[in-house]
Each structure stands twice: as C-alpha cells, then as structure tokens.
Specification:
Length: about 280
C-alpha cells in the first residue's frame, strides 16, 4: 500500500476491491444501485475512492451475499439504526428459506430415485388408473390466481383461499362438507393460473357472501388415480397419471380435479387420500 493511501485514509477502487475480495465491476454495480457509493469521486478523472470506514460495510455485503441474501435486504441492514436486530431477522428468514429449499431438493431426489426404479423395472405405478364417469356435484367455491403452474406458484395461494372460504362459510352458517375439491384452469392471455378451492354444497345449496355456488358438470369418462401422501408429492402421482393415460390411448379434454377424500386437519398429510380426476376421451 502506498504511503499517500495511508495518510489520506482513502483507497482506490482497485485497492478497495482487493480488500473486500470482490471485483471492481461489482463495486461499480453496488455504486449504480445505491448500495455502496464511493466516499469521493474525482471530478476531473472520475476515479472512485473509498474510505476506511466503508470497508466494514463492504465486508458485510460480501458476507450476506455469500449467504444468498438479496441486495435490497442487505441495504435494509446497512441503513438500520439497530443493525444487529435487523440482521438477526434477515438471517432467521434466510435460514427458513434454505430449510424449505433443502426439503424441496430432498423431495426431488426421492422422486428421481422413484423414477429411476420405474425405468429399471424395480417398481411400477402403485396406484393404477381407473377409467369411470364422474357425477355432477355442486360446491361452495372461491377463486384466486397463481403466477403460474407448479407447486412453487400454487401452494402459497391455497392456504389464503382456504381461510377465506372457511371463514365465509362459517359466517353464513354453512357446514364444511367433505370432500373438498380443487381445480385449476388457464387464464387466457396470461401466464397466471386460476385456482379454485371448494367444499361440497348442502343438498339444497344456499348462496352467501364471500363464496360462489358452482355446479361442476358430470364427466362422461375420467382417468382417476388415488394419491396417498402429502401435497408436495402429489406431482409424482399427477405425472404418472398423465403418462399412463397417454400410454392407454386417451387424451385430456378438461381440467384436473383434486378430490380430498381424507384430509382432516388432525390427520398428518402423509396419511391424506386424494383422487386426481382428469376428463378424457379416446384418441
């Protein structure tokens, strides 16, 4: 380090980048987004200089980026009056995100292993497809929108919809009649997915505030698979259903329904029983 740098207590952008173990390009990016601006910029040359006091902030940025925290989250930490408390909240939230990610990866590994066993002939589909008609049913339903298909998009929408539906039905004096029925549909001109959550209606359906009375039509022929287990693993049964009906010479002609035959609140999800019902016709 040069003597002039020590006396002025300022670092060039190259020196500062080296001390923080980041690239000069990254420091310029932090400047552009307002996360870490230089202490001084030479008006004639445009050279950036950083103070010794800023090194702590840079090291904090590098640490939190290494933990997967976003720049917006890091900015809140750096600007906080009580940095310790804000950083604690951020790390607790990040730990929960990582735990959820690890659980999702473990579930994917399990599905990969199951699929490999099927491909190698060690295991076959445990829930065979049944082809049968489905009677019409009237339900009390609410609708929401997910940003797209897939459990990562749909799952966060389900619980708020269930709370809304159960609250509205109880306020209207209606019973929660099983089975619950969920279904999904594409929204034309959008990547969003319509999410419908419902309970079976009374024998004499009653309209009320906060929910709709919906008649789900009869289905002349449906491919049906019984899924036993939690919701994160239902995608495996859905994939097996889709592949199976294609192999059997059918094609889908309507949205899939999820009919929750055994899904009480006091029952672990590992013991839930759900029918997947897809309207089909012969190719």
């Amino acid at each position: 380090m040069s003597g002039s740098t020590v006396v002025s207590n300022m670092y060039t952008i190259g020196e500062f980048a080296a001390f923080g173990r980041v690239s000069v390009r990254m420091l310029r990016h932090y400047d552009a987004v307002g996360l870490l601006r230089p202490a001084r910029v030479d008006e004639r040359s445009g050279y950036r200089f950083y103070s010794n006091a800023q090194l702590r902030d840079l090291l904090r940025i590098v640490e939190l980026r290494g933990l997967g925290c976003g720049l917006d989250e890091i900015a809140v930490v750096l600007e906080a009056d009580d940095e310790r408390e804000v950083m604690r909240d951020l790390l607790v939230r990040r730990a929960a995100e990582l735990e959820a990610s690890v659980a999702a990866d473990r579930a994917r590994l399990a599905r990969i292993g199951e699929r490999l066993r099927i491909l190698e002939g060690e295991h076959t589909m445990s829930a065979p497809i049944e082809y049968r008609p489905i009677e019409a049913v009237t339900v009390y339903a609410v609708e929401g929108r997910a940003p797209g298909a897939g459990p990562e998009n749909v799952s966060p929408v389900i619980d708020p919809l269930l709370e809304r539906l159960t609250g509205s039905l109880r306020a209207a004096g209606r019973e929660l009649i099983e089975p619950g029925i969920f279904w999904y549909d594409d929204i034309e001109g959008s990547e969003e997915l319509g999410v419908h959550v419902s309970f079976t209606a009374d024998p004499q359906p009653q309209a009320g505030e906060g929910y709709d009375v919906v008649e789900l039509p009869a289905v002349p022929l449906a491919a049906v698979v019984t899924h036993r287990g939690d919701m994160p693993s239902i995608g495996e049964s859905y994939d097996l259903l889709m592949n199976g009906l294609i192999d059997d010479g059918y094609r889908m002609v309507g949205p899939c329904r999820e009919v929750y035959l055994e899904a009480d609140d006091d029952l672990p999800q590992s013991q839930w029983v759900t029918e997947l019902q897809v309207p089909v016709e012969r190719n």
